[in-house]
Design brief:
The chain is mainly alpha-helical. The protein folds into two domains: 95 residues, no CATH class; 100 residues, no CATH class. The protein is built from seven helices and no strands. Helix 1 runs antiparallel to helix 2 and helix 4 crosses helix 7.
């Protein structure tokens, strides 16, 4: 975290007050008339000055640490800048960046999901799902068309769809009536799907069979 604070920030106010109290004490000793006290105060001033110099150096060191290592007091600390695929913890996060990018909204996927909702789902609901659902598997070739998992698993004849390959998908073959030996779907007396409906199913599978 770039905003991590050092424990030194808690000691800083205490050190300031101690240093100030020492200066006040030296001023009080220096104003006394006793030569011994003034002489002792001079030596004490030397000691306090050395201590103050050391404290100043330590303060500057910790101040730089707080700014450049922890980002305190800067809107964009240097410690927060990292090269692509690198992190301050020393690990390579290229895979993590790729995963995060995959989670970002995809306009193409959104358009395919909208196409499924608007064009494909009504066709399945009106012509397929009434028979091909979990409650009627024994009478519908063991095919469940209520989920994408059911479509991919397929029934007794195999997977209903092959994403990206409408011509190899049994769903398309059945609604087209490509094989005279196989029943046309939906079966009579239900009306055959229109060319526009079949094209919508083909397009859906061709685009990867996105299921919203």
């Amino acid at each position: 975290m770039c905003t991590t604070r050092s424990g030194f920030t808690k000691k800083w106010p205490i050190g300031v007050w101690q240093f100030g109290a020492g200066l006040v004490l030296l001023l009080a000793i220096g104003s006394m008339k006793s030569p011994a006290l003034r002489h002792g105060g001079g030596w004490l001033a030397v000691v306090v000055s050395l201590a103050g110099a050391g404290w100043t150096v330590q303060t500057a060191h910790h101040g730089g640490t707080l700014v450049y290592a922890y980002g305190i007091g800067t809107p964009t600390p240097a410690a927060c800048f990292e090269l692509p695929g690198e992190r301050s913890d020393g690990r390579d996060h290229a895979a993590e960046h790729a995963a995060n990018a995959a989670l970002q909204p995809d306009a193409t996927a959104d358009s395919r999901a909208t196409f499924f909702t608007d064009q494909v789902l009504p066709i399945l609901t009106q012509n397929c799902i009434n028979c091909h659902n979990p409650a009627k598997l024994d009478r519908a070739g063991n095919l469940d068309q209520t989920t994408i998992a059911g479509m991919l698993a397929g029934g007794w004849s195999g997977p209903a769809i092959v994403p990206g390959k409408p011509d190899e998908s049994l769903l398309i073959k059945r609604v087209r009536g490509d094989d005279p030996a196989e029943d046309l779907m939906p079966p009579p007396p239900n009306p055959k799907l229109t060319d526009e409906q079949i094209e919508a199913l083909e397009q859906w599978i061709r685009d990867g069979a996105v299921w919203d």
